[in-house]
TrEMBL record:
PANTHER family for the chain: ALPHA-1,2 MANNOSYLTRANSFERASE KTR1, MANNOSYLTRANSFERASE KTR2-RELATED
Keywords: Glycosyltransferase, Membrane, Signal-anchor, Transferase, Transmembrane, Transmembrane helix
Gene3D superfamilies to which the protein is assigned, alphabetical: Spore Coat Polysaccharide Biosynthesis Protein SpsA, Chain A
GO terms for MF: alpha-1,2-mannosyltransferase activity
Transmembrane segment boundaries: 12-33
The family this protein is said to belong to: Belongs to the glycosyltransferase 15 family.
Membrane topology classification: Single-pass type II membrane protein
Record GO biological process: cell wall mannoprotein biosynthetic process; protein N-linked glycosylation; protein O-linked glycosylation
Organism of derivation: Zygosaccharomyces rouxii
Name assigned to this protein: Uncharacterized protein
GO CC terms of this entry: Golgi apparatus; membrane
Cross-referenced Pfam families: Glyco_transf_15
Residue stretches in coiled coil: none
Compartments in which it is found: Membrane
Amino acid sequence: MLRNQTRRPFVVIIFLLALFGLYLTYILSLVLLNCLEGSRIEKDLFERSREVAEKYQSHRGRHFKKPLKLSSNSYDDEMNGFTFHKVPQRENATLLMLVRNWELNGALKSMRSLEDRFNRDYHYDWTFLNDEPFDDAFIEATTAMASGKTQYALVPPEHWNRPNWIDEEEFERRLQLMEEKGVLYGGTRSYRNMCRFNSGYFFRQKVLEPYDYYFRVEPDVEYYCDFPYDPFKVMRRNNKKYGFVIAIYEYEDTIPTLWDAVEEFIEDNKEIVDMENNSYDFITDSEVVGTFTPIVDSNSDYNLCHFWSNFEIGDLNFFRSERYKKYFEYLDSKGGFYYERWGDAPVHSIGVSLLLNRDEIIHFDELAYYHNPYYTCPASHNMRIQQRCQCNPHEDGHVDIDPNSCLMRWWKNGAGKTFLKDDQ
Ligand SMILES: Nc1nc2c(ncn2[C@@H]2O[C@H](COP(=O)(O)OP(=O)(O)OP(=O)(O)O)[C@@H](O)[C@H]2O)c(=O)[nH]1
Ligand SMILES: *[C@@H]1O[C@H](CO)[C@@H](O)[C@H](O)[C@H]1NC(C)=O
Ligand SMILES: *[C@@H]1O[C@H](CO)[C@@H](O)[C@H](O)[C@H]1NC(C)=O
Ligand SMILES: [Mg+2]
């Protein structure tokens, strides 16, 4: 009896020590496994990037004080190393889709993709615009798909319909001519309303008043990689006003007299067009670039290059500014949105190229995007692995370095392109 009682505390201490030992082993093994996993990722996933860096360094007989950094393609200085720091703090921004009720499936597909690749970490609001009221099925399904709040707005008819100063007979005559000529969407009335709305009215919608930035989304597009950052934040921090991913050539048949109108506008508005610091050269350069000559001959000084506006991230305050509105009003007065078929892509592109400083336009090199028939995908293997991309820049339809692309002209004449960051 007595012996048992003196032993009891001893047993308890042994038991506690054993428990503590087990716990320590558990923690140590977790740390060890983590390290092993880290080096496995480094070894397996970034091996190719490392090989390329080493080959480059030795073959060129160059000697760098520090080893080359693996390519990241990134414009974001904070995006270093293997982890992306996602800060849930949001910008004053909304995702924006102009869409028709019958495009619901395509809208959901685009939403699913953008939510998965970006918005599920941020929950930005979705704003839907339509020239007709959205039906209940559309509202229900898109609200369910969104991780943020949703809002639905009807475009006022005076922002959408053909203005009454457009000559009806002339309009019908031109419409038929373009249709016969086989111009893409040449014979479509609503497409013209859409292009004019996107050129001059989307930013005047009341629902967009509470926001600084918008991210345009269209039905049936896809985002092939995780977003490595919040593009809105990149825009605000770096004072960017317009962001794009793809730049291509426009069909000249849709804009025969657009450039004449632009030249007149420049002539009449010298005080708001800063020729020294804008991107005029990007839209007029027609030299050989890289190995490519322009694939389409232009009959004017405009080289037909435009940012593909079905993807765009923009500063609403720029579009709401007097100078942009003046530019739009000037073009609109020519009637070309109806007598021809001016697209919002060349209108936005020429607008931002003339009115913004070239450093205020950003090419989002890290964002992968598809809209029929083209896509863009990060060139860096390392990046594609880190961002879990589902695309291959070496397959058909990849447009960045292709005769159909104007991106090289942006690298040459715009804000430039940085391949390696110089740390020294
Ligand atoms: N509410 C509404 N939205 C429209 C109308 N026409 C086009 N849109 C939207 O405007 C955007 C551009 O139209 P699209 O038909 O995609 O034109 P596109 O991108 O030039 O051509 P494809 O996508 O190749 O057909 C999309 O978001 C459409 O949903 C319209 O009459 N009403
Ligand atoms: C967001 O942007 C709008 C439009 O520029 C502005 O009126 C509003 O004050 C901004 N809100 C915040 C919280 O900054
Ligand atoms: C162009 O930018 C430079 C450098 O920021 C500035 O000094 C110059 O005044 C700008 N040119 C015009 C016409 O504003
Ligand atoms: Mg489209």
